[in-house]
Amino acid sequence: MKIIDAHAHIGYFGGFFNVGITADELVRQMDEYNIEKAVLCALNNEDTKAAMHKYPGRFVGLAWVNPWDGAKAVEEAMRYIETEGFKGIKLHPLLHAFVANDDVVYPIAEAASKTHVPLFIHSGHPPFSLPWSIAQLAELFPNVKMVMIHMGHGHGVYIQAAIDMAKKYPNLYLETSGMPMHTKIKEGYEVVGHDRIMFGTDAPFRHPSVEIQRCRVSGLNEAQLEDLFYNNIVKLLVLGSDL
Question: Is the pLDDT assigned to residue 94 strictly greater than 90?
Answer without folding.
Answer: yes
